[in-house]
Amino acid sequence: MKSTVLGAAAGVSAGLALVVCTTLRAAVFDSRSEAAAPWLVSSVPPLFLALIAVVFFGVMGALLARRGREDLLTPFLPCGLAAGIFLPGAFAEAPFLASFAGRSLDLLLAVGLAISLSRLARGLPAVATSARTMGLAVFVFYLGVGYWISLRVGLSGDEPHYLLMTYSLLHDFDLEVQNNYGAEDYRSFYQGKIEPRLAAGTPYSVHGIGVPLLLVSGFAAFGLFGVLLTEALISALLLHAIYRASLRITASPSASLLAVVGFGLTSPALFLSVSAYPELPAALVAALAAERLLDPEPPRAFGAFAWTLALGALPFLHVKFLPLAGLLIAAFAYQFGRRGKSLLAWLALGAAISVGSLLLVTFLTTGSFDPTASYGRQRIFLDRVPLGIAGLLFDQEFGLLLHAPFYLLGFAGIVTLFRRNALLGALSLLALLSVAIPGAAHPLWSGGTSPPARFLFPALPLMTIAAATLLGREREIGVGPWASWLLASSVALGLSMVFLPGGPFFLNSRDGTGRIWEALSTSWNLTDYLPSLVRADPRSLASATGLFLLVLLAVGAQIRRARGFPLAPLFGALLLAAWAHDRTFVSRSRELEPHSVSRVMHHLSRRGQDRFLALPSFERLSRESLTARVSLPLEAVSDGDPRHWWSRAYSLPAGSFRLSGAPPIGITFYNGESAFQSDELVFSSGIALGRFRLRARSLFEPPRLFLVEARPSALEALATIRATGLRLHSLDDEVYLDPAGFWIRKASRASFAIELEAPGTREVRIRIANGGAPNRVSVDSALVNESYRLAPREEREIRLTLRGPLVAFAIGSESGFRPSELDPSSRDDRELGVLVRAHPAFD
Question: What are the residue ranges spanned by the domains of the chain?
């Protein structure tokens, strides 16, 4: 009976989740003049369809339970929280439940499906995979992913600087790049603008020479595609080494393959494996070293010498890898030096040559023997190490465990690895510290424009081997259920960051909010529940510490009790923490304002309207409503370049945009990632939340940006009021819903759309009634562009002729008032501007 109820409940959860997923979720752009980010909204699904899903999937779950296979549906139980969209008052009591109605629900369904398929495949014969076959598959996969990302993102962060050094090697036969910066030689492979990054007082780059030397042959032969080929080859060798090392220590092909999947299909490997950063070759050296240390046969004399030279090359990739290089050389000396003094002497000779070469190159390029001299005065603060390490693990933009919880198995597996091989266990922990501490001590521990936990990447192959060791003991300790959820959720997050509409989302901008979590915040803001160590607020520090202890205790209890600790208590604890957050904290990034989203949501959650801002809506607009949806005035900002006009930075949704109000000469539409492509004054971006700036030689008036087409191509209205024969839609949250119409906020600009309920041509009259203070009002549409002053309580009428099903327009209110200021007995403290109504009166 218990299994039947469980199976039926799981089936109902899956059915309701699928119904909610059928609703459109599309970008809604906040058109305020300040730098703003879009979010997504979801529509309420039909109740009749939900009833059919409850009956059908509930019966299916009960039938599977009778056959003893309810485990195929139980992974979908968390998806049942999406049913909160149908429960009156659910969001009022627990607003975080709204997040399960958004795109995060797609992620949960994908995770559940992956776990169900893995359980279904348990009875099938295992498929043997050789290390070479796996390496070839990895090469093809990363080459495809790299090409995909290059089309949508291009080069990012430090990549143009490394490639400019490669360019100088090929064309100037030197590493002096000061002249290359001046001549803008990077224009041949990068469309943005980069400023010189030179070593203090020298014409040489501040970056290491290792990456350009690795890329020079591929770049010379095939250009940027040759760079992708080189990166894919290094990545294939990296995963090949991880697989062989895991297989040696576990003797389990399945555990080794799962570890490789957990490493290769998650962040940061999924992105650094297709990026020109020094962390990728450094991780390859660490993985090859681990594989060699597991070989009981000592290397020959010249082999030991060559290995030491390879390990000593790490600082040439970046000086921060100097501690890691010393640690790996010490491990080789400990492992193989006991076999004879001659072998130890060859190791010492290789180390001496490596150190001497590093000092010589440093002296020739900077005039100093200090390897850090190229960076000038170092901003290293040891007191920031705890904050930096917490950020590298838990920050919502750059934290490892929030983007790839799979590595929890690595942390838990270090103990198991230490018992199997004390040297490798100790090396894994020390290697992690050797890259974490220098990175955490620097204020920019986040790495700027980079995937999460980039600074930890060279040590992650060793953590993956530790995870494989733990997975190899699954039958003894029963860690399988935990491993399934951690691995499936990590892979789903990683692939979502690449293939979600508008992705990739790994290009974080160090503003305290993770892009992937913004993308998953379709109906409710998930970023408020996650630590933001970039901001270093006390709540984030406390939540990061609590999250780390909670998860480690749960995993430790699972390992200790051997199959006796279920996942449900941990999931329940996370839900309880989210509920406590909603009761005790105020939203950090969005104000809590009273919003009636639709009549349906008004009746379903009458007591909770004041908790909603961007949430499930009911009224759906047609695709044509996207035209002229966005009208964003671009504000100028000083950029230290008097020759050009620069706009401030904006976050845009993925889509096509049109620029107006500016001459077509001297306009450059760009960001730091080459994410945008342009055709005269029409621009396209494949990345949601891409950071956009405009540069122009001269402008006579500030330009505006209009959205031509968004991806996905659908739009939801935040609120709708019916008038006779038409509907007036509010397209953003710059308004307060009123029985008579929409109040525009003080000093705000709101977007609207009028939709005819019947085809034809019709004249519509819009009345704008001013509030209790003198005001300047502007109207902007394809038909009317006006600006005028209104006295208190003065009205103005606008006539719009609709020759199609829909017209979009915007109204701005320069000033406003508070009702409580005019009437002391009023409790209304809203800052109101003007009231917008359609004529005739609303139904």
Answer: 1-125, 246-567, 624-710, 717-839
